[in-house]
Every structure is written in C-alpha cells, then in structure tokens.
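Feature request disguised as a bug: please show the residue count (422) next to Glucose-1-phosphate adenylyltransferase in the output. Example input:
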Amino acid sequence: MKRNVISIVLGGGRGTRLFPLTYSRSKPAVPIAGKYRLVDIPISNCLNSGLNKILVLTQFNSASLNSHIKNSYHFDIFSKGFVDILAAEQNVENESWYQGTADAVRQSMKHLEKYDYDYILILSGDQLYQMDFREMLDFHIENGGDVTIATIPVVAKDATGFGILKSDDDGNITSFYEKPEYEILEGLKSEVSEENKHKGKEYLASMGIYIFTKSILKKMFEDGAGDDFGKDIIPNSIGKYTTLSYQFEGYWTDIGTIESFYEANIDLCQDFPQFNLFSSSPIYTRARMLPPSKINGSYVSKAVFGDGCIIMADKIENSVIGNRTRIDKGSTIVNSYVMGADFYQNTTEIVLNDRKGRPNMGIGKYCYIEKAILDKNCYIGDNVRIIGGKHLQDGDFGTHSIQDGIVVVKKDAVILPGTHIG
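Example output, currently without the count:
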C-alpha cells in the first residue's frame, strides 16, 4: 500500500509542569532512560516504521534540542531520508510565534511544498511508547479516513484527565470531550476489545497522534479551523470529515509532569518494564564515543546504566544512572534518576577540589539519595542526604525543587557537603 508520508514532530512549548527540567531545554530535549532524549522516541518510531522524512518543529528553549537533532540523525548521500529542524520564525506575512500545535503546522506548510507526500503524520515530542505507524496508516487509507486519531483505552478514573473520543462500531468518531466530568462518563463508552472491557478500559483517550490526508488538512487551514489540534481542529472535524479512531493496545504514557516522568524512568528498572528498551525496534540517539561503565565494589539491584560511568557506590537500587555519572565510595542511591554529565571533569580540578573540600561533579562520598531526580552536571558534596517523600512540601528552593514528593536537583547545581534535603 502506498504510504507517501511526511512526519512532523511537535517540539513542545514551555513545559512548565516539568520545571525545573525544562528551565534551559524544551520538553522533547529532556534526557530519559540514562542515554536518550524524549524526542528520540517519536523519531525512532518513525524510522522503525519505514518513515524517514521527518521534520521537528521547535520554538521555545530550542538550542539543546536543535543540537541533539543535528548531532544524532544522519543519512547517507544516496538516501532521500532526513530529520530536519523547522524553527519558529517571524516573516513579512506573520510576525507572531506559534499560537498552538495546529498553528505551528500551519505556519510550516509553506516549507513542505518541496516534498512529495499524500499524508501528514503529526506526533508529540514528549511521549513514551513503541508503535508501528504503518498499521495506523493502512487503517487510515483502507477506511477512507480524512483524519485518524490514535486512541488508547483508559479506565474511568483516568478518563477525566484526557480528551475522550466516542466512536461507533466502525471506528468513526461521533463526539469529543476535553477532560469530561465524571458524571457524564457513562455515556462516553466506546467499543473496545474484550480484554480491555474486562479491565474497565472502555473510554478512548486521544494520544495526540494524528494522520491527516494532505488535501483535507490544507482545506482545514484555509477555512480557519483553529490554532490547536486537541482544542480546535479535532472537535471541528467530527461530523464534517471522516474522522476515525485507531485503537492502540500497547504501552503509552504522556510525560507531562515530574511525577509521570519519574515513574516512567523508574519503571525501566523492573524485571519486565512496560516500555521495552531491549526489543527488536531500537531507540536511536546520538552516537557517543564513550568508554564502558566501570563499577567497583557496589551492590547493584534493578538498575539501568548509561555509558562512561565510574561507580564506587556502596549500593544502587531501583535507579537509572545516566552517561558519565561519577558516584564516590560509601554512597547509596535508591529509587532515583541520576542524569549524569555532559562532559568529564578535569582530573587536576578533581584533585584540587578534594584538597579544598569542594564538591566535584557527580555524587561525593557517603551520600544517601532516595526518590530524587538529579539533572545533568550536578556537584553533590560528601555526606549529603537527599530524601524525597510525600511529607515534603512542593516548592522551589534555589538549588532544587520539590514536586509530588520528588526532589529535583537542578542542572549545574552545587550541593555543599553535609547538606540535608528532606
């Protein structure tokens, strides 16, 4: 079946709910699983689906994301594939920045004219899932879709936090409700598999993944359908265009908050994680020429390590340890995500800091860290205790912030020896 597709990955807005991880980077540029960035997920799904014409739309805090895309995705000179960046721009026709997800695509349509495509695949840059988009495209084409929305069955308690789509037995979407009240949910059930029905997953939530037939999307933009896909374009397409629901049965999570980000990473440490990093569909990222990780005298259980780490910790349990992480002797890391570092500290500087009692990059001696996220390039002194938990009050405290009981140490933060947090 002909699949002449161009894929567009939305680079994300301010990402305020992921602060402080998004203080100096966009959401899709946030490191995940110790060695990847969130944007690697949709791009890898595209490449594993045989779709190699990919544009990433960027606007806010885009320097880190742009650098990652430039250094990660290269195709040989005989390939027609590409992963290119389309940065927001002001011009003589439009002096405003992107006003929403649909407006970002609308303003970029003029740059797509040089490409040959029949369908547009719209993806979010901050979700965790593995999906073969070819199956969704075939569904769209076979059923004569103008718009197809990937949906995932959810239970009633989760439905109030999503855009809920009601579909008929043929998969046609008949109505849409953005974060509906619990009282009206009973009338929003859709036809799902017997397994999902048994689990109480009878409500179809939008995954923010869309396929548009090219001519239909252009017509929607010409008719002024709105600035946002979820709030404007999708609700306005129902009843006017053939709008279909494509039910996805696999694992999917939206990395929208510190809590969801933390849980998604910690889950990777389990024996059978919901997101499988070890499948036949690889996650692509920047190829770093780093040495293997070195672990000396540590008790390690249910941990994921990136490359180039130097570990002398006493204990690491149920934690993700990112590239170039250094953890000194006697320290314990439990239920935490340590993102690592962007570079190795100079050996002379390390010796000098040790003499003067200053923290080095990484985690010092005899520290205890539990239920925390340490952003990149942190300097954690000796005998530091960081213990998250629901007993902690949310807030921003200079070197760190606390959300939902999770302590987030900021990028480049210096935590002095003997400091206690939690």
